[in-house]
Amino acid sequence: MTATAVSKPTGSGTAPGPAGPRVRRPRPRVGTALSLGTAVLYLSLIVLIPLAAVVWRSTEGGWDTFWRAVQTPDAWAALKLTVGASLIVALVNVVMGTVIAWVLERDKFPGKGLVDTLIDLPFALPTIVAGLVLLALYGTNSPIGINIAYTRFSVGVALLFVTLPFVVRTVQPVLRELDRDMEQAAYSLGASPFTTFRRIILPNLAPAMISGAGLAFTRAIAEYGSTNLLTGSIPFETQVSAVNIFGRIESDDTTSAAAISTVLLVVAFVVLIALDLFQRWSARRG
User: Fold this and answer.
1) What is the DSSP string of 235-269?
2) pTM (2 decimals)?
3) DSSP track, 59-91
4) Is 184 helix (H, G, I), strand (E, B) or coil?
5) Is residue 151 pLDDT above 60, yes or no?
């Protein structure tokens, strides 16, 4: 007798199909975790922990002591001058920085490379040297006959000098990558240069312009060296908050200095958060 092989029926009555592709789960990357940990540790040691220490020191005597330090006449006057001058400087730099970026990207003229290099000079110069340069140019012995030293106008000039590159270098790459075909199409349809700039160029440049203005503002409220020399740091007149803070540290009043520093820190933090939210909103709009 011959045995006949009988296949066992499956539960569904059909032969099992081929096994599906095996899904590989990504293995944790040790290198990524190590890099992230190193970055967080470095950021904490250099930025987060010192900032937290300043905020903690500012409230060491309680919130009443904090507000009394901020609202003293000289500190309050310095804060108002610092924030007000920084706002004006940011607005001026939005216009003039965009114009300079436009000239550097769209125009051709002798010495263009030199001018492009000089834009970064405030980045390279120590701010105290920048103040000395401005004082020699606009001080009592000015070679061009303009003396604005030790006036409120000198505060704006010093801040304009140190913050101009932030707007120019933020707008310039966007302007360089801007599609020129859209402009040519607008011109061919009869649009004027002003209309083309307002309807096509400006909307593309606006995020970079606002970002540059925000960076210029946050840089301006922290300026010390150039304003200290050019303005003379006269209390209630030309003294900015950074100089006022340094004076309190010299007087061994570190709690008051930390309180004023915390106010500037909060202002800068709010501006940076607003810039981040605006950039995310612009990215979603496309």
Assistant:
1) TTTT--HHHHHHHHHHTT-HHHHHHHHHHHHHHHH
2) 0.81
3) TTT-HHHHHHHHTSHHHHHHHHHHHHHHHHHHH
4) helix
5) yes
